[in-house]
Amino acid sequence: MADVPDNAPEHCPGTTSEQAGKSSSCEGCPNQKVCASGATKAPDPAIAEIGAKLSTVKHKILVLSGKGGVGKSTFSAHLAHALASDSTKEVALLDVDICGPSIPRIMGLEGEQVHQSGSGWSPVYVDDNLAVMSIGFLLSSPDDAVIWRGPKKNGMIKQFLRDVDWGDLDYLIVDTPPGTSDEHLSIVQYLSATHVDGAVIITTPQEVSLQDVRKEIRFCQKVKLPIIGVVENMSGFVCPSCKNTSQIFPPTTGGAERMCADLNLPLLGKVPLDPRIARSCDEGKSFLNEVPDSPSAEVYQNIVQSIKDYCSNRVTEEQSTT
Amino acid sequence: MVESLIQNMEQTNDGGLAQVRHVVLVLSGKGGVGKSTITTELALAFRHAGKKVGILDVDLCGPSIPRMLSIGRPDVHQCDAGWVPVYADAQKSLALMSIGFLLEDPDEAVVWRGPKKSAMIGQFVSDVAWGELDVLLVDTPPGTSDEHLAVLENLKKHRVDGAILVTTPQAVSTGDVRREITFCKKTGVRVLGIVENMSGFVCPHCSECSNIFSKGGGEDLAKLTGSVFLGSVPLDPLLSSSIEEGKDFMQSFPNSATFSAINSISQALLSSLQND
Ligand SMILES: Nc1ncnc2c1ncn2[C@@H]1O[C@H](COP(=O)(O)OP(=O)(O)OP(=O)(O)O)[C@@H](O)[C@H]1O
Ligand SMILES: Nc1ncnc2c1ncn2[C@@H]1O[C@H](COP(=O)(O)OP(=O)(O)OP(=O)(O)O)[C@@H](O)[C@H]1O
Ligand SMILES: [Mg+2]
Ligand SMILES: [Mg+2]
Ligand SMILES: [Zn+2]
């Protein structure tokens, strides 16, 4: 871990942080002088290495939400499945949720392990054209907990980007944990020498969720990450028995629709609550294959199409400006 | 004699937590399972049972409790013993201190790395003048990282009775909570029990029950790991809308199945704390 030397105290802020050499935990650390001099704050050489490594990845999409449990991982997984259903496209899904990795289960890869190859770690393949990487593949048992502070998580994310043998890709999808913290800062920072297409923001309809999601949008604006659009998930439930709709998570402040209008962002679609989505995730199957003709699958397909269009438009825009 | 002297010294060092009888963490490896909702409803249930309760909200990136208790964003003040909590009721039986109160702009994203979060939480946790409380509930963000370690480090100087783990029924959630149990073991926190939230939705139109997020996963996890199962709370639109509006669900819907579920969980928890 380049950020935290082995001989550093437990609360080391990381050699590249602004607090390096200055925080109270730095007192007595053998590296304090070097850190305080600012020498360690030079840009991490890994950023350039990652830039070179990912230059063969055409599109990079981050999936974000300030709120927990709104369906980021479910969406990331299904976006990956849908993009990979075109067998001419190479797709990869990277899970940077270090403390709560869900992707292995949702992709049906529980218990899989990564392999070390000559050119780095090789990801786990769901299909020939769909690769997955998650810290879950590095854990030896379902009871293992990853009790890591920020700097260590950052080191892992760096390794995922720099040391995984991704190969040539059309799409790299990145699933993130909730919030705006180390993982988010790191992924944006480590990808700063590459071109990121943008972020898809996931929310549920109620204000308890939107109030956190607005903060995430501010975060994107701060770090100049374009927003592809917003997905409202768990939007209403149609009773299978009487067909009436219940707003289980009520849009008391107008839901994602109102937020998108206020902030001038595209609303990509509203995915209803559907027990078959949760079940497919538990079973590690693609809901889009399991129940292709359901209303939720249809909404999903439309959203995926908008994202594809967004990505290809960005390519044309760039070509026309150069 | 010596012992009581030491105890006295500890009490003065304890500052704001000296008169807090029980401290319970609300944890989950998984996001959005209802940690903040369960924290809020348990606090309300305790209050209705005549207890003095406090909530400490340490979710820096997404503090939810102020909204759930309709407290908004008050100015907080300091007294000699530290930050004065904000009371949700005139009787001062429900106190809240949210780390969100200390942020300059509540709408601004808090984009902080771990060490900065730990430092802020460290200061904050030991510096609230709770006064006398029967139970202090600590609402945490999802995960097993900086915030959790910082909270524990600081609360343990006083006491931590244990943690309740919230999960939803499906495997995607119980899988994360299983890892959280290991976190508790490694950090020496007793698991007081598991709550299964959002289990089963009863259609208000036709009374048909749909298990939108599957069913029974919380109870199975409790069996698998030898933990106490505290009970399950149904997926109830009346609960989510009460939470949205910051209304007291426990007061408004005393005849609902959700009320009974939360009430029995709160009683089980109280008796397990008192039997200690
Ligand atoms: N539209 C839906 N209908 C029913 N269940 C859904 C829907 N979307 C997601 N789920 C289920 O809800 C749970 C939470 O989703 P998911 O794990 O994708 O959220 P997340 O935002 O990634 O959570 P975390 O913040 O913990 O990373 C999962 O069990 C998932 O299968
Ligand atoms: N039993 C329930 N019935 C209906 N809605 C619920 C229930 N439990 C929680 N909710 C709703 O689900 C949403 C998520 O709950 P909450 O914010 O409490 O989760 P959390 O675990 O604290 O999330 P985070 O990980 O983001 O902190 C809220 O809008 C809440 O009102
Ligand atoms: Mg997730
Ligand atoms: Mg919460
Ligand atoms: Zn019905």
TrEMBL record, chain A:
It holds the Pfam family ParA. GO terms for cellular component: cytosol; nucleus. It is found in: Cytoplasm; Nucleus. One of its GO terms (biological process) is iron-sulfur cluster assembly. The keyword Calcium does not apply. This is NUBP iron-sulfur cluster assembly factor 1, cytosolic. Component of the cytosolic iron-sulfur (Fe/S) protein assembly (CIA) machinery. Required for maturation of extramitochondrial Fe-S proteins. The NUBP1-NUBP2 heterotetramer forms a Fe-S scaffold complex, mediating the de novo assembly of an Fe-S cluster and its transfer to target apoproteins. Implicated in the regulation of centrosome duplication. Negatively regulates cilium formation and structure. Belongs to the Mrp/NBP35 ATP-binding proteins family. NUBP1/NBP35 subfamily. It comes from the Eukaryota. [4Fe-4S] cluster 2 binds at residues 239, 242. The gene is NUBP1. Keywords: 4Fe-4S, ATP-binding, Cytoplasm, Iron, Iron-sulfur, Metal-binding, Nucleotide-binding. Residues 1-25 are annotated as: Disordered. CDD domains: Mrp_NBP35. [4Fe-4S] cluster 1 binds at residues 12, 26, 29, 35. Residues 58-229 form the AAA+ ATPase domain. InterPro entries: AAA+_ATPase, Mrp-like_CS, Mrp/NBP35_ATP-bd, NUBP1/Nbp35, P-loop_NTPase, YlxH/NBP35. GO terms for molecular function: 4 iron, 4 sulfur cluster binding; ATP binding; ATP-dependent FeS chaperone activity; metal ion binding.
From TrEMBL, chain B:
PROSITE patterns: MRP (PS01215). Keywords: 4Fe-4S, ATP-binding, Cytoplasm, Iron, Iron-sulfur, Metal-binding, Nucleotide-binding. It holds the Pfam family ParA. One of its GO terms (molecular function) is 4 iron, 4 sulfur cluster binding. The keyword Transmembrane helix does not apply. Binds 4 [4Fe-4S] clusters per heterotetramer. Contains two stable clusters in the N-termini of NUBP1 and two labile, bridging clusters between subunits of the NUBP1-NUBP2 heterotetramer. Gene3D superfamilies: P-loop containing nucleotide triphosphate hydrolases. It is found in: Cytoplasm, Cytoskeleton, Cilium axoneme; Cytoplasm, Cytoskeleton, Microtubule organizing center, Centrosome, Centriole. ATP binds at residues 29-36. [4Fe-4S] cluster binds at residues 203, 206. GO terms for cellular component: axoneme; centriole; cytosol; nucleus. GO terms for biological process: iron-sulfur cluster assembly. Its cofactor is [4Fe-4S] cluster. The keyword Nucleotide-binding applies. InterPro entries: Mrp-like_CS, Mrp/NBP35_ATP-bd, NUBP2/Cfd1_eukaryotes, P-loop_NTPase, YlxH/NBP35. Its main location: cytoplasm. It comes from the Eukaryota. Belongs to the Mrp/NBP35 ATP-binding proteins family. NUBP2/CFD1 subfamily. Heterotetramer of 2 NUBP1 and 2 NUBP2 chains. Interacts with KIFC1. Interacts with NUBP1. Component of the cytosolic iron-sulfur (Fe/S) protein assembly (CIA) machinery. Required for maturation of extramitochondrial Fe-S proteins. The NUBP1-NUBP2 heterotetramer forms a Fe-S scaffold complex, mediating the de novo assembly of an Fe-S cluster and its transfer to target apoproteins. Negatively regulates cilium formation and structure. This is NUBP iron-sulfur cluster assembly factor 2, cytosolic. It comes from Dicentrarchus labrax.
